[in-house]
Amino acid sequence: MSQTQLVLDSPPPSWNEGEQFRIHCGISGGFMRRIEPIGSQFLAHARRKLNNHSFSEDER
Amino acid sequence: MPSAMDSKPVIIGLRIGQSYSSIAIINKDERADCIANEDGERQIPTMVAFSGDEELTGTQAKVQLLSNSKNTITQFRNFIGKSYEECKSIVSTGSAQLVDKDGQAAYKVEFKEEETIVTAQEACTKFIASLRESAENFLGQSVTGVVLAIPTYFDDEQKNSLRIATEKAGLRVLQLINEPSAAALAYEIGNVIISGQNPSTTNKYNDRIDVIVDLGSDSLDVSVMSVRSGMYTILGTTHDPDLGGAAFDELLAKHFANEFKRKTKIDIMDNKRALVKLRNSVEITKKTLSSSSTSTCSVESLAEGIDFHGNINRTRFEIMANKLFSRTLEIISEALKNNDLEPQSIDEVILVGGASRIPKLQSKLRDMFANPSTLIRQDFEPDEVVAYGCAFQGSLISTFADQLINDSLDTSITLIPHLLKSIGILNAKKEFITLIPENTPLPVRRNFTFSNYLENQKEIYIAIWEDKLLVEMVLKDLPEKKANELKIFITIEVDMDSKCFITAKELISDKKLEIEIDGKSK
Ligand SMILES: Nc1ncnc2c1ncn2[C@@H]1O[C@H](COP(=O)(O)OP(=O)(O)OP(=O)(O)O)[C@@H](O)[C@H]1O
Ligand SMILES: [Mg+2]
């Protein structure tokens, strides 16, 4: 991802002043798959799950 | 008294192939390497033999295969944990006779002048015990545990049986891991160590799609794997049980058998012993053709006391093998198609299996994956890379308690929801920028920094998309800055229930917007 891609525009003319956000729909449901229990990121995931930690708790 | 802390655990990585096996360790400089057995071989023939009063394994078993084939057990790895009924139709040539022992696949051999029945699992134990010994001789200390690679098609029965065989060989099994995953891990960790860089830098989270092509001795396995922030998910494996190095040997054997017939009028196609001799010899011919443009095949007393000597060049071999190359590419295409992927969307192709050394096959793979951003990974020896991955995994978990390792393998940890569709943002140029790609395991949290497109842009419009618009947000009253000078920090988190949390914050003014979108069921 190049830096020049990471730019955001002003709201479109149709945007109502004072409006902060519009939620259109939720994201599609997750699909169950098996992750391979290998590598350090998996171990971090397993540790979070086993300790019932969220991402933020994990960072502390 | 020495404490447990003094003795560093010694973990090895093992891959047991149908034909060859390898033992890997992690060196002092953190690199993986394979150990040679006492005969100097790093690719150790997966064989067990009984000769008089002696039990032989590996290279020692292979050298006497021709003179003692009925007491030599070969190709037993895939029969582990299988019933005799399941195996009886898959007869391997030049090996001890397959028999039924209480329903299990077993072999009848003569040992110490007595008929003895050895199950596939027992053969495996004997073989792995010899690998352990080789490792201990090399290291000068006992091995405390092992991470073992298994083919993706092994069922629970087979995994269990292999685990038991290994523990009976005196090795504590820390973990069984799939062969393609081991190979991918070997490149991930091995590459960081060698070059200090991640294997492919598609983005800062190192997301990628790998295709692992494993052309072994008996079979071809093509696995498609998504790697998301260092987590590996096999999307699918396509397997051809009849396409491997042996199929190439068979072509060469037929070719030379015809030549022998032309020269001597002797047909050896029904002569089992002659065929075993010839197949053994052409394997070397084939390997030589991977590094030289011509090769020979010599067999002493091939039939009726007549020696055979033949030549072949690489081009001839490649023409003969064209169908096998095409079939390999077909299986790869099928694997891609099964996952709705095109060759150009693949980030890495990892070559595994001894037969993937065939130069023509490599050039055909390069043609198939011609996109310059697709890396063809073949820096590691293809028949060793799986063992490397096991050794790396072993070193990652070497200090963990068994209980913790077992807990982490529980399906409640490994079976998790994955993002169904990529989530992205539409930037100022109306381009879709992927923030979290499909197949990312959940939960996930990612951070991105965006900037303002226009000078004095007081409002920032954020549109988050899947394949449809999910949410629009606007950050207001921002400080007046030149283009590209604002720093807008966007965090997206998706939890296990597909609930999505989006935070957008402008760093200078600290203006912030937080939104939660409920996951909706499909
Ligand atoms: N340099 C080479 N050129 C061509 N083929 C080779 C070369 N080196 C090894 N092979 C072939 O690779 C095959 C062995 O590969 P490998 O050790 O990966 O198989 P395996 O794991 O025992 O088998 P499988 O994966 O089917 O269980 C043999 O057929 C061997 O002849
Ligand atoms: Mg193999």
TrEMBL record, chain B:
This is 10993_t:CDS:1. Coiled coil: none annotated. GO terms for molecular function: ATP binding; ATP-dependent protein folding chaperone. PROSITE patterns: HSP70_3 (PS01036). Belongs to the heat shock protein 70 family. SUPFAM superfamilies: Actin-like ATPase domain, Heat shock protein 70kD (HSP70), peptide-binding domain. Keywords: ATP-binding, Nucleotide-binding. GO terms for cellular component: cytosol; nucleus.
